[in-house]
Design a protein that fits this description.
Helices cover about 0% and strands about 50% of the residues. The chain is mainly β. The termini are far apart.
């Protein structure tokens, strides 16, 4: 069982930055690929970014590529999402998620149905 707690959301002006954190419980954090997803009002949840269990590989949605950076610190059981050059369309509830990675499976997964554990979400609001 893994529990995930996001933090760092808030209200920011367009062009500003925020850093989201997601703290995980348990001693097997380094066995999990970690993803960030978001859901805007009236829209479906969408993939934002994913990082491999060791942190060596990442992947991003086209809409955030070049502006957002995902990273992780396995010693602290924490994954981060650095968000720069924020736009009003980035406004959403942001969720982190964990997927147990097997040796024979893909290291990066961007389908939300593939994830095993989810945090409660943190609100990010970008004003124009």
């Amino acid at each position: 069982q893994v529990q995930l707690v996001e933090s760092g959301g808030g209200l920011v002006q367009a062009g500003g930055s925020l850093r989201l954190s997601c703290a995980a419980s348990g001693r097997t954090f380094s066995s999990y690929g970690m993803g960030w997803f978001r859901q805007a009002p009236g829209k479906e949840r969408e993939f934002v970014a994913v990082i491999s269990k060791g942190g060596g590989s990442t992947s991003y949605a086209d809409s955030v590529k070049g502006r957002f950076t995902i990273s992780r610190d396995n010693a602290k059981n924490t994954v981060y999402l650095q968000m720069n050059s924020l736009k009003p369309e980035d406004t959403a509830v942001y969720y982190c998620a964990a997927k147990r990675i097997t040796p024979w499976g893909p290291q990066l997964v961007n389908g939300d149905g593939e994830y095993d554990y989810w945090g409660q979400g943190t609100q990010v609001t970008v004003s124009s």
